[in-house]
């Protein structure tokens, strides 16, 4: 393995800032940070309140190259509280960087406009806020009422068109009472990439995004303020859909969220490869990532739950959402789930109710006494949950550790699988094939990201630790060599043309 080090260093030097390849399409790595109050204990009630605000956004339906985001943060509120994920995007001419929250529950990228009313002027995250100025970007253009993009946006009931100003506007109202309004802009987003067999730096693509001119509610607060929100939803106006439709990025993204220590992980616009991944089809024609959850088993025993309570219908269904901290089960599933857990551990723990939550006082390791849980989805795909995927350690009482059920009861509405369930797993959102896959994984390790081409279907590199697999170093080296050769030929031909 040590023999690979000089080559790896050379590759990282050549391709900095850190590039991965997918199917001849390539993107750069962007740092992703998570804002979280350090060493702050957070009550479950506060987490539920945060998720209620989050779900307000989901329920109201606000409507390749490979890009790798390094992730910070953890789903464990006992150690680090709760927060948000954010990264930087580069837009405009001249290019300017903006901090944006990563949100898989909405589609639109929007930034604070320089003319914004009630926008935060500072942030408790320790970042310098920026404001987008259409007048200062030579490549910015307003989206007019006649633009096809505006026609679609209006159909989603999130936008309107002012005939007087001839500009396409939007208003997003969230369930927690917060909201934002503004207008759509087209401008240049920048990437450092390899495309096919040509080395290209400072690549770019025009994208449509929102410029916020007014905000209300929690969006006006400064404690966790950022420059905007980066929607990773499946809709055609999301950046991933815009870029993949032009062949700039693949139509798939993946994440692996660490659940131990200080958390972290990786988020990739591309496909993470892992042989144990199982897939379940997405429910078609939905604005969010809906799956067909069919049953739940505790310790291998199926619970008596009518599958219809999970079925997608009006304001019902099962959603995968990395922006939700906890997990939420409809009452018809929650009650038998908690009852089965309590029965399984009754001889080894003391069940108690703490602030309305089902908890247990435990003297032994939870892994020794709490059962595995299996969420079973359409297509035979099961999601195996270890105790730390449905329990949260919440301090000590009478000399015993107190563990509480992290799943929350929903009287009606969606079953939502949040970070508590998603951690320590690779998740692949394969939009091209309309499916989601997952596999248990140690997310502190590097992940293999596909760089499959028409001639090589099994090539990959490691992402997350920025190293190339030694077993496949030849593949990547040949690609790099061909790219450099093609680049030199291009230079020679260009120089020669000056004398013809």
Automatic annotation (TrEMBL):
Domain Peptidase A1, chain residue ranges per copy: 85-439
PROSITE patterns linked to this entry: PEPTIDASE_A1
Family stated for the protein in its record: Belongs to the peptidase A1 family.
Lineage top rank: taxon: Eukaryota
GO terms classed as biological process: proteolysis
Active site, renumbered: 103, 321
Molecular functions (GO terms): aspartic-type endopeptidase activity
Species: Canavalia gladiata (Sword bean)
Entry keyword set: Aspartyl protease, Glycoprotein, Hydrolase, Protease
SUPFAM superfamilies per record: Acid proteases
PANTHER family linked to this entry: ASPARTYL PROTEASES, EUKARYOTIC ASPARTYL PROTEASE FAMILY PROTEIN
Protein name: Peptidase A1 domain-containing protein
